[in-house]
Amino acid sequence: MKTPKFWKDENIISFILYPFSIIYGFFRHMHVLFSKEYKTSLKIICIGNVTAGGSGKTPLAIKIGEMLKERNIDFAYLSKGYNAKIKEFTKIDKTIHNAQDVGDEPMLLAELSDTFICKNRRNAIENLSKNYNYEYIIMDDGFQNPTISKYKNIVVIDGEYGMGNGELLPSGPLRETLNSAAKRSDFFVIIGQDKQNIEETLLNNGIDVARAFVVEKQKSNSSDKYIAFCGIGRCEKFFNSLKKSSYNVIKEYSFGDHHNYKEDELEKIITEAGKIGAKLITTKKDWIKLSKIYNSKIEFLEIGVEFYDINKILNLLNLE
To answer: How far is C-alpha 85 from the chain's CA centre?
Structure first.
C-alpha cells in the first residue's frame, strides 16, 4: 500500500480513526505482555523501525553487513520475506529463486551474504541456532516481535518524515510510541536531516543516536529525459534522490510498497517513454523484481547509507 498522506499531519481522518488506534495499542500491549522470549547464543542485530513504510531498514542492514564482512565475521541475514510465495524456512539460492519466490528485499540482501526467509521468525532463529554456525544474524525488521531475544535492537528513523503525525496505526504511521521503542532499543539511527529534532528528544532521555545519510551510487552525466517509477514506502524519497543525482526526470509514477508489476503496467510506461524519447529508471528494489526482458529496458538507481561517525557506530555495535 502507499503511505497515506493523512499520516503526515493531524487531520480529520486521523481523528476519526483514533479509536481504532486505541484498540491497536491495546492488542499490541497484550501481545508483548503474554509472549515468551526465545534466547539464543546467536548475536542477533535487529534493524527495525517505529513507523510503517520505508525508513531505510534494508540499506542500513546492507551497510552493517558490509561492516561485519570487512572484519571477517560470519553472519547471515534473516527476513520475513514480505509478499513471498515461499512461507517456510528457506535459504535463498539466487540461481533458482526470484523476488516473487522470496521477496524483493531478501534478494537484495542475498547479494552480500547468506540470506534466509521465514514467516515465523522464532522458528527461523531456532533452526539457525541448531543447524548453522553463524556468529551474527542481521534481522531486517522484527523490532516489534517480542518472541526473540536480540543482541542489539536498532531503530531506524527517516529524519525528514520523523514520526509523521505521531499517532498509532491506523490513525497515524506508528507501530508503537517513540517512548515504548526507546525503552527496548540499544540505539537509534536517524537517516537524513532531522527535521523534527528527534535526536534531541532521544539524547535528553539517555538514548544513544547515530546519524547517517543517503548516498546515491551513480549520477547522470547527460541531459537524457527520464520517466521514473517505483513501489516503495515513500516514493518521494526516490524521486528526490534522482534530482540530487542530476537526472532529468520529466514524469513520475508511484505505486504501493512491494508492488508486483503487471505486464500491462510496464508496457504502458515503456510505450509512453518511447513516444517522448525518454529512458526509464526505478529503484534497485523494484528492478530486481522485473523479468530479464524488462531489466534490459529499465535502469535503476542504487542507493546506500553511510555514517557521519563510523567509530561511534562501531562502538555501539561492539565492533571497535
So the answer is: 19
pLDDT, tens digit, for every residue of 129-161? 999 999 999 999 999 999 999 999 999 999 999
Q: 528513523: which residue's cell?
A: 157
User: What pTM was estimated for this model as a whole?
Assistant: 0.95
Cα–Cα distance, 173 to 252 (Å, whole number): 24
Q: Report residue 272 as a C-alpha cell.
A: 509512453
Do strands 115-117 and 90-91 pair parallel, antiparallel, or not at all (unpaired)?
antiparallel
Residue 219 burial (10 A CB sphere; 0-12, 13-18, 19+): exposed
The set of cell numbers assigned to 109 is 540482501
pLDDT digits (tens, 9 = 90+) for 162-180: 999 999 999 999 999 999 9
Distances (CA, A) of 261 to 23, 36, 82, 231, 274: 34, 39, 15, 9, 19
* SS3 label, residue 98: coil
Cα separation, 28 vs 22, in Å, equals: 10
Q: What is the radius of gyration, based on Cα positions, of the chain?
A: 20
Give the Cα separation of 313 and 320 in Å (integer): 9
